[in-house]
């Protein structure tokens, strides 16, 4: 295994074990509201510390961009992008769809990625040029070629400052033209599912880099296409992501374009 990936997996499993130790009491944790409908618990913060400690033990000079503690170190070289608990709202309700997401980037190139679901203990990994694995076995995006038979993941806007009226016509269009839409509630896991062929496409507006960095590499290494919604190559710039197997990505893009 790539040494960077090895570190990412060890850190993700350690954080995941910690997250699961508190799962049964998750509804009793101290929770802070970052902004309306955006929560952080002591588990998010402690899990992030566990991950950063592991990374810094192995790579003391690498930079970090982490959801709860922000940016540390020079971002121009190696940088780790961390979401210690993606799907916090699910976790706090003991709705078992959440994950640890860790990626490492060398300047602009994503090198390795891990999305670990500590509830199911599914481990999704990728390193650049070496494909995507689920629990060590190679996975690929689906072969679904027609939108009418596709299953599409998305994220619903959940804060008042998000552009709900901009989003709803897109949702309507996708509902009318596919076999179904799912909103599981953890973007990193949505992208991992897409990489494993469980979803055929995915789009969401306003994501942060830590929600999607690892998932982007998982999808690309599994043969899928990821762009900015609207055409740009790097969805981490705007936060608006469109992903899918090649055929479904193209059809979704056409469908959503008039609503951008
Ligand atoms: C959230 C989840 C969710 C997505 C939100 C994210 P968090 O991350 O990924 O699926 O719709 O936009 O903020 O806050 O649970 O880490
Ligand atoms: Ca997140
Ligand atoms: Ca989070």
Please explain how this structure is put together.
The protein contains eight helices and 15 strands. The protein is α+β, with helices and mostly antiparallel strands and 260 residues long. The protein has two domains: 3-139, Fructose-1,6-Bisphosphatase, Chain A, domain 1, CATH 3.30.540.10; 147-259, D-Maltodextrin-Binding Protein, domain 2. The strands form three sheets. Strands 4-3-5-6-7-8-9-10 form an eight-stranded mixed sheet, sandwiched between helices. Strands 12-11-13-15-14 form a five-stranded mixed sheet, with helices on both faces. It has a two-stranded antiparallel ribbon with strand order 1-2. α5 runs parallel beside α6. The radius of gyration is 17 Å and the shape is globular. The termini are far apart. The model has no long low-confidence stretch (mean pLDDT 95). The structure holds D-MYO-inositol-1-phosphate and calcium ion (2 copies).
